[in-house]
């Protein structure tokens, strides 16, 4: 059985103005923080793996540590542009990177793997984009139109009802895209 792997971004714990900026449906900062923690833990178990694609918290370090201690799972952080507080608690993360090329066992693929580029920012092209490699990003809070011809999309909480998305959900989304290999043989 595959380990449960999840992707998410842009929680902005402790950032009151994000409610207004991103039109989040929360009445207060406290309600937003608690609901984001609840939805995280509804999906993610203690033994699950989470790739957080940046902007965990804009709160102070002590506040951020308390939040991180309440979240389930082994968290790999792909740094965003608001990581000051999270980086004061590095031992909470299984890894901390600017960019990561993840390989997941995928028996449906010819080579038995699915490669995924993880980065805080959306890219128009990336390593292997012409060979079916996926790219997941955050940062844009759902403001970038999805490109149905590209194997990339925003995994930020603003795009997924404030929940992390599973590898299986990502796979379903990618399978619905209208991507075709640019160098495929023509019939």
What would you note in describing this structure?
- With 187 residues, the chain is α/β, with parallel strands linked by helices.
- It has a single domain, classed as 4-Layer Sandwich (Purple Acid Phosphatase, chain A, domain 2).
- Helices cover 21% and strands 22% of the residues.
- The chain has helices at residues 17-21, 29-43, 61-70, 167-176, and strands at residues 5-8, 49-52, 74-78, 93-97, 99-105, 113-119, 134-137, 152-154, 165-166.
- The strands form 2 sheets. Strands 4-3-2-1-9 form a 5-stranded mixed beta sheet. Strands 5-6-7-8 form a 4-stranded mixed beta sheet, with no helix packed on it.
- A hairpin with a 7-residue loop joins β5 (99-105) and β6.
- The N and C termini lie far apart (38 Å).
- The mean pLDDT is 94.
What is this structure's SSE topology?
Elements: E1 5-8, H1 17-21, H2 29-43, E2 49-52, H3 61-70, E3 74-78, E4 93-97, E5 99-105, E6 113-119, E7 134-137, E8 152-154, E9 165-166, H4 167-176
Parallel strand pairs: 1-2, 2-3, 3-4, 6-7, 7-8
Antiparallel strand pairs: 1-9, 5-6
């Amino acid at each position: 059985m595959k380990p449960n792997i999840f992707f998410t971004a842009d929680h902005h714990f402790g950032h009151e103005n994000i409610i207004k900026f991103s039109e989040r449906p929360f009445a207060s900062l406290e309600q937003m923080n608690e609901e984001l923690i609840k939805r995280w833990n509804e999906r993610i178990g203690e033994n699950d793996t989470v790739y957080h694609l940046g902007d965990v918290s804009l709160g102070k370090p002590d506040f951020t540590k308390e939040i991180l201690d309440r979240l389930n799972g082994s968290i790999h952080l792909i740094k965003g542009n608001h990581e000051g507080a999270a980086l004061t608690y590095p031992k909470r993360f299984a890894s901390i990177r600017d960019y990561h090329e993840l390989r997941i066992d995928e028996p449906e693929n010819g080579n038995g793997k699915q490669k995924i580029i993880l980065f805080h920012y959306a890219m128009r092209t990336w390593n292997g984009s012409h060979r079916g490699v996926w790219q997941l990003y955050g940062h844009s809070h759902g403001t970038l139109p999805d490109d149905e011809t590209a194997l990339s999309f925003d995994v930020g909480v603003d795009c997924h009802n404030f929940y992390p998305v599973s590898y299986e959900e990502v796979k379903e989304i990618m399978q619905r895209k209208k991507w075709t290999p640019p160098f495929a043989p023509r019939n």
